[in-house]
Amino acid sequence: MPTDTKRVRGPDVSQSPVLLGYKPAAVLASRGPREDGRQRDQVDVRPVFVRCGLVSQAKGSAYIEAGNTKLISCVYGPRETDRKDETDMKSGRLTTDVRFAPFSCPERVPWIQGSQDKDLSLMLHESLQPAVCLQRYPRSQIDVSVMVLENSGSALAHAVTCASLALADAGIEMYDLVLGCSLQQVGSSYVVDPSYLEENGWRCNSSESRGGLTVAFLPSLNQISGLQSDGEMSEETLTAGVRTCIEGCYKLYPVIQKVLTKAVRRAAPPST
Amino acid sequence: VSFLRRSKFEEGGMMEVSASNNVSLREFGCEQNLLSRPDGSASFVQGDTSVMAGVYGPAEVKVSKEIYDRATLEVLLQPKVGPAGVREQSQEQCVRETCEAALLLSLHPRSSLTLILQVLHDDGSLLSCCLNAACMALMDAGLSMSCLFCGVTCAIGADGDIIADPTAAQEKESRALMTFAIDSTERRVMMSSTKGSFSVQELQECVAVSQKASEKVFQFYRDSVRRRYSKNL
Amino acid sequence: MAAGFKTAEPLEYHRSFLKENCRPDGRELSEFRSTTLNIGSISTADGSALVKLGNTTIICGIKAELTNPTVDAPGKGYIVPNVDLPPLCSSRFRPGPPGEQAQAASQFIADIIESSEVIKKEDLCIGRGKLCWVLYCDIMCLDYDGNILDACVVALLAALKTTQLPEVTINKETSAPEVNFEKKHKLNIHRHPVSVSFCIFDDSILIVDPTAEEESLSTARLTVVMDEEDQLCSLHKPGGTPLSGEKLQECIKRATARKGEIHKLIEKVIKSMKTAQ
């Protein structure tokens, strides 16, 4: 096994105490109200707290908090590209990097992460790229990084929203904002903006068909830039799910708009 | 290591630092210019602790590391066994920044200097031995420096007495351990790295001991360089 | 005009301020930026703290896990601190494994934990030779504007102070560990180290709590770590221009004053958290 020589090393194996304790009601009810009191089968997204321009060093940054899910996103650039050989000289390059803080999940995430963060980075890239006017930035690179400080479900959806807000805060030219919303299907019912338990708890009791869906949506163009789904869903529930997610995005839209106008006002106060 | 020892005995390279002025150091040994590939090299022995140093440069620098008005210095510290870890990296930083302060890097803009330190044996006071080996190797490479520097390690024993240049066993028993780099012009502290906790008073005593010990080390530097050149002539 | 001067001749720009005994951000030479502390903001961590030192933002999360002690030290647990400087916090860092600065910071924090014995590793032992805690102290920079070491130490100390571990017992019959999440206890913090960093400008001028720009223009850096009993836990000066004894004394004096402020801040924030509950 290759050892990590660039970090202070601990013991080779260690176990989270959560695995040894008794299970705190692992069986999730698939009927009735949800654990946090939200409504099932309705577009009941968690209220979000959003701020722009928190990081002094970045060109643009955004912080989003939905329930206990906390993310921070920074944008650097446009700057000279690292890889000169393979770039298309006519358009810019967008790089994305999503990472989970080691303490962000109930179980500790090791520093060297597996495929999960790479998958998320790729999905974020695919969701954002159609919205950014990359042809405006020839021969340059725009770096987007997202750090998940606490993962309480729907990390990808909020990462999309947060990153697009940071891009807008950085003054990168875009066709539209990108908003993200996710949904978890449990048999015939669904939950919007699922929590960590609702997202991962279904592994325990797989009596019903379940699936997850995340949609990245451009609200003013009314277009979908990214769609990711896993698990088992019929065609009908999937199309219905996409429609529900879009509805969720529209709920988010006024909040994001307000934050952005506030940030712009602060950066350039209207001349009186 | 054996060839090192042999050559040193042939030259009479070992010299004892006398134990006057209550600062006693172990036996020091140094040989410069013993490797043919690097532009400068030195081995430094403090008791059983031994470090070999090699300097390459000034040479061409990678574009990404280029600094427009001075040379880029890189320091690599190789432990005796296994790959270099976080501790080595932090010691590399200490050695590099000390060398950077002593070297006149602006004489070689847009070029690279590489200093490689190979630990041959660790019997305490390793960081100070690394610093001494680095200084001798830089000297051997003929690089211009504003001053010389030397490393001195002090250990504070459980009963509060200060031991200069401790062995590994003495380090283990000590309550606190400090390594300083002292410059040759004004005997001031260039680098400091400590372990364990100690009072301000103890710190000042250790700095004083190190400054005293540095005189001996610099005298040793002078003697060993003089011996080397007197032979060549 | 001033902005152009700052970009073209940053060193001269700073010197012109230092000549007047002040700094571009309006601080005096021995003045810290405002320090704010937020604790327990990460519910997935066993203890957490967010520290802001001016613009510099550091978050520390503690995760405790169970493991076997080593054969060499059967009565001791582990403390594993790591500092991460992700590309998110500044354009000077690139993605990939930690660079030299992050590694040096990790080692610095590890040395402080070791030297000051903030937590005795013996306290983390549950069953001698069988079971112990490992405390992963993951420290992450979210905004890099200089002097991360001071912020890291505050974040670490505050996070450790708020860490609560569930009670673990070893079942005598099955010798399997049992965790009781109902009963939680705090860590025993033995000492409270506080770090104070300085930069040296032009080989002589000493400034405290440097910003990122001041750090990169300075000729040497110095960090003093001191605990509540005026014992030094570290005097870290990774090279650079030499420092005289008098200047060193000045640094220690400043550290003595600063540590009181930090202890008060941590106490205040913890108290306000308790009353809020």
UniProtKB/TrEMBL annotation, chain A:
Signal peptide (UniProt feature, chain positions): none
Major localization listed first in the record, in broad terms: cytoplasm
Stretches assigned to the Exoribonuclease phosphorolytic domain: 45-173
GO BP, one annotated term: U4 snRNA 3'-end processing
InterPro entries listed in its UniProt record: ExoRNase_PH_dom1, ExoRNase_PH_dom2_sf, PNPase/RNase_PH_dom_sf, Ribosomal_Su5_D2-typ_SF, RNase_PH
Annotated keywords: Cytoplasm, Exosome, Nucleus, RNA-binding, rRNA processing
Gene3D superfamilies listed in its UniProt record: GHMP Kinase, N-terminal domain
UniProt-listed SUPFAM superfamilies: Ribonuclease PH domain 2-like, Ribosomal protein S5 domain 2-like
Presence of the UniProt keyword Nucleus in the record: yes
Keyword Cell wall biogenesis/degradation belongs to the record: no
Gene Ontology molecular functions: RNA binding
Family: Belongs to the RNase PH family.
Record's subunit section: Component of the RNA exosome complex.
Known role: Non-catalytic component of the RNA exosome complex which has 3'->5' exoribonuclease activity and participates in a multitude of cellular RNA processing and degradation events.
Descriptive protein name: Exosome complex component MTR3
Protein's gene: EXOSC6
Automatic annotation (TrEMBL), chain B:
One annotated GO biological process: U4 snRNA 3'-end processing
A Gene Ontology cellular-component term: nucleolus
Record's keyword annotation contains GTP-binding: no
Keywords associated with the record: Cytoplasm, DNA-binding, Exosome, Nucleus, Phosphoprotein, rRNA processing
One Pfam family linked to the record: RNase_PH
Occurrences of domain Exoribonuclease phosphorolytic (ranges): 25-143, 148-212
Major place of residence: cytoplasm
GO MF term list: DNA binding; RNA binding
UniProt subcellular location: Cytoplasm; Nucleus, Nucleolus
Family of this protein: Belongs to the RNase PH family.
Self-association state and partner proteins as the record states: Homodimer. Component of the RNA exosome core complex (Exo-9), composed of EXOSC1, EXOSC2, EXOSC3, EXOSC4, EXOSC5, EXOSC6, EXOSC7, EXOSC8 and EXOSC9; within the complex interacts with EXOSC3, EXOSC8, and EXOSC9. The catalytically inactive RNA exosome core complex (Exo-9) associates with the catalytic subunit EXOSC10/RRP6. Exo-9 may associate with DIS3 to form the nucleolar exosome complex, or DIS3L to form the cytoplasmic exosome complex.
PANTHER family membership: EXOSOME COMPLEX COMPONENT, EXOSOME COMPLEX COMPONENT RRP46
Annotated protein name in UniProt: Exosome complex component RRP46
Lineage: Eukaryota, Metazoa, Chordata, Craniata, Vertebrata
This protein's encoding gene: EXOSC5
UniProtKB/TrEMBL annotation, chain C:
Residues in the signal sequence: none
A biological-process GO annotation: U5 snRNA 3'-end processing
Subcellular location: Cytoplasm; Nucleus, Nucleolus
KW Cytoplasm (keyword) present: yes
GO cellular component terms listed in the entry, alphabetical order: cytoplasmic exosome (RNase complex); nuclear exosome (RNase complex); nucleolus
GO molecular function, one term: mRNA 3'-UTR AU-rich region binding
SUPFAM superfamilies per the UniProt record, alphabetical: Ribonuclease PH domain 2-like (SSF55666), Ribosomal protein S5 domain 2-like (SSF54211)
Domain Exoribonuclease phosphorolytic: 31-166, 193-257
One Pfam family from the record: RNase_PH
Entry keyword set: Acetylation, Cytoplasm, Exosome, Nucleus, RNA-binding, rRNA processing
Main location: cytoplasm
Family, similarity comment: Belongs to the RNase PH family.
Protein name: Exosome complex component RRP43
Organism: Nothobranchius furzeri (Turquoise killifish)
